[in-house]
Design a protein that fits this description.
Blueprint: E1 14-19, E2 22-31, E3 38-40, E4 47-51, H1 56-65, H2 67-73, E5 81-82, E6 88-91, E7 94-100, E8 109-113, E9 116-121, H3 128-155, E10 161-165, E11 172-174, E12 179-183, H4 191-203, H5 212-221, H6 225-240, E13 242-243
């Protein structure tokens, strides 16, 4: 009687795809909010987003249809970058060398060496990446709060809460209740990029969509929005390659 019904199977956490003889691992994420299949390439590798009630067989078919799209873009995906001593991290778009001070106490400090700008990080070697990460997040939160308040005042809306996340494919999100999540990596971008994302998310409190009215709202509070938007399209993947010492809870 019910033979016409197609049985659903739960999707796996990971799957593999053969692209011209190359086996590629793809992470699978089930999303309640997703309305369609989505294939993306965050810093940690290919990601297939699957709507909660979809069939895994349909997801596999979608992935297979887009294997050439994925194969063409994988070589351009940057390798993961860590906040390790000796690395060059772009603070506000300017490369800074990470230098361990050896001091037990103290705060991260911005300074100069003969080679150029530097970030001096205290603490034991095993704790320095976390010290730097926490400091970057605190600076990001301060600047994103200031720019969010600025645009909220211009658009006559109210931001209720601002939090930082370590999303692998999103720069921000906004709820109708006035809560905004931002990606901590925005502090690594030039200030006009951080300002653009703040304007973008605050504008969602006026238009919860990406309609023409929404983009007009962004432009109303940030007339040169195209500058930040273009920068993210060109350099966003490199920025997403920077990884926290460990995943946020």
């Amino acid at each position: 009687m019910f033979s016409f019904l197609r049985q659903k199977s739960a999707p796996p956490a990971r799957t593999q795809l053969d692209i011209d003889g190359r086996v590629v691992d793809v992470t699978v994420r089930v999303s309640k909010r997703a309305r369609a299949f989505r294939l993306s390439i965050p810093a940690k590798g290919p990601l297939l987003t699957v709507p909660e009630k979809s069939r895994w067989s349909d997801a596999e078919a979608f992935l297979h249809r887009h294997r050439h799209w994925l194969g063409a873009r994988l070589p351009r995906t940057p390798s993961a970058q860590s906040l390790a001593v000796g690395s060059l991290v772009p603070l506000r778009g300017v490369p800074h060398q990470i230098i361990g001070t050896g001091a037990v106490r103290g705060r991260v400090a911005i300074g100069e060496t003969d080679e150029g700008p530097a970030l001096f990080v205290p603490g034991a070697p095993e704790h320095q990446p976390r010290r730097l990460y926490d400091w970057l997040k605190s600076v990001a939160l301060e600047e994103l709060t200031e720019r969010s308040d600025f645009h909220a005042q211009r658009l006559s809306v109210s931001v209720k809460q601002i939090r930082l996340r370590s999303q692998s494919s999103r720069w921000g999100s906004c709820s109708s209740a006035g809560a905004i999540n931002y990606n901590w990596r925005l502090i690594l971008a030039p200030p006009f990029v951080l300002d653009y994302v703040a304007a973008h998310e605050v504008a969602h409190l006026v238009e919860m969509n990406h309609s023409e009215a929404f983009w007009a709202t962004v432009e109303r509070t940030l007339p040169d929005m195209d500058r930040g938007r273009a920068w993210l399209k060109s350099h966003g993947r490199q920025l997403m390659a920077w990884q926290p010492p460990q995943a946020d809870p």
